[in-house]
From TrEMBL:
PROSITE patterns: MFS
Regions crossing the membrane: 29-50, 62-86, 98-115, 121-146, 158-177, 183-205, 242-261, 281-300, 312-330, 336-362, 374-394, 400-421
Organism: Actinomadura verrucosospora
Domain Major facilitator superfamily (MFS) profile: 27-425
Protein name: MFS transporter
Main location: membrane
Annotated Gene Ontology cellular component terms: plasma membrane
Length: 425
């Protein structure tokens, strides 16, 4: 009995010490970890994959790009909550999340190298499924760090770091990938290596609680099989369900437009004389990222201070809907510059505060990675649908203008979905 009574204080002391250590430097590493992940996603989806698809079959590039990215997103949707459930149950001496951060990043790099050397649509589908799937295992562990280690009154700030990393990552990925349009294999290798670097930094410079620092799992007869079978149970919780719906609608709106930005500039908007499509995408992304980062780092901490989340998310979603009217009414390069700047302002607030709100409506802390993985279905699932929806709309007589209208309607629906949430102000 004396051994048992001594173990609890030691575990508690270890947990407190681990929490203190994990806070030092955690915020900038959350930014870095998300930045490198979304550099991979953004660079591949916006530049490298479209370039490969165009080389393989230029005449059918719109439909084929939708096929590749849609199937890849479907595979990633499955891997994220499964990877989250596995890391929730992990009691490795290397930490709860570290094995999944490092393993996911290393496998993503390996598959990215293979993907960069493929030359058929079928192999592009398989390769992108594997890269995105491993990236989502990494992402499941990364997103769980916030509810694991950050107190509720700091969630807005932590989510701002993650949101800034997401936005900057898309820019970095596009800029890096744009330098490799004539050597795509090296582009894939560079982006995969950046992800491994981020995983190593997170694993070595922050404290991932060890088994003796974790609270015991509830004695409810749970098993991995039961966890996997019930991973959608979070959707039975009222507030989680509405936040899930709002995120899904917003991501669908966002990717319907940004997923076809390269083709949009080349085939509809037009580019300034002498500018290449990849350079146009990089410049617009830079403009959007610059405004987004400013509002991300302001919006997240401000939502902490005011203890208000719903208002920020509602205004940001409605603002993104309004911004989509700009290219609809004036499909010109100068208007696209303004659109990306305005859209970035609202997107920065959305990413910071909505992510914080997600962590505050999680049903159970001990299943944080699993339930954040479920929430990620609202990120990855719409990416499955978006390429097919967008390509179908672009192929109609309405073309790109119709795409802007649909995306705006989806963003308005996302704003309205936040209103029924009860537990968060």
């Amino acid at each position: 009995m004396s051994a048992g009574t001594g173990a609890a204080p030691r575990a508690q002391a270890g947990a407190e010490s681990g929490t203190a250590r994990s806070q030092r430097g955690l915020m900038p590493l959350l930014l870095t970890g998300n930045l490198m992940l979304f550099a991979l996603y953004g660079g591949v989806a916006s530049i490298l994959l479209p370039t490969q698809v165009e080389h393989i079959d230029k005449a059918h590039k719109v439909a084929l790009l939708g096929l590749v990215t849609g199937i890849g997103a479907a595979f990633a949707t499955l891997l994220n909550p499964i990877g989250g459930a596995l890391s929730d149950r992990s009691r490795s001496r290397f930490g709860r999340r570290n094995p999944f951060l490092l393993g996911g990043a290393l496998l993503a790099l390996a598959f990215a190298v293979v993907l960069g050397n493929t030359g058929t649509i079928a192999l592009l589908v398989v390769g992108w499924c594997l890269v995105q799937g491993m990236g989502n295992i990494y992402q499941a562990a990364l997103t769980a760090i916030v509810p694991d280690r950050v107190p509720p009154d700091r969630r807005g700030t932590a989510s701002a770091m993650a949101g800034a990393g997401t936005t900057l990552g898309l820019l970095v990925g596009i800029v890096v990938a744009g330098r490799f349009t004539h050597a795509v294999a090296w582009g894939y290798t560079a982006l995969g290596a950046l992800l491994v670097l981020a995983a190593v930094l997170l694993a070595t410079l922050t404290h991932d609680p060890r088994p003796d620092e974790l609270p015991p799992r509830a004695a409810d007869g749970s098993s991995l099989r039961r966890d996997l079978a019930s991973f959608l149970s979070a959707l039975r919780v009222h507030d989680f369900r509405w936040v899930f719906a709002g995120r899904a609608l917003m991501i669908l709106s966002y990717f319907c437009v940004t997923g076809y930005l390269l083709y949009m500039l080349e085939d509809h908007i037009g580019l300034p004389h002498g500018m290449k499509g990849a350079d146009g995408v990089a410049l617009l992304t830079l403009i959007g990222a610059a405004t987004s980062v400013v509002t991300t780092v302001i919006g997240g901490p401000l939502s902490d201070r005011l203890d208000r989340r719903k208002t920020f998310v509602f205004v940001a979603s409605a603002g993104m809907a309004a911004a989509l009217l700009l290219p609809l009414l004036s499909p010109h390069w100068a208007t696209m510059v303004v659109f990306m700047a305005v859209d970035g302002l609202f997107f920065g607030v959305y990413m910071a505060v909505d992510t914080a709100m997600v962590t505050l409506v999680l049903p159970r802390g001990e299943d944080a990675a699993r339930d954040m993985g479920v929430l990620n279905i609202a990120n990855a699932g719409p990416q499955i649908i978006a390429p097919f929806v967008a390509s179908a709309i672009i192929s109609t007589p309405g073309g790109y203008p119709a795409l802007y209208i649909v995306a705006a309607v989806l963003a308005v629906a996302a704003a309205l979905s936040i209103l029924p949430v009860r537990s968060v102000r």
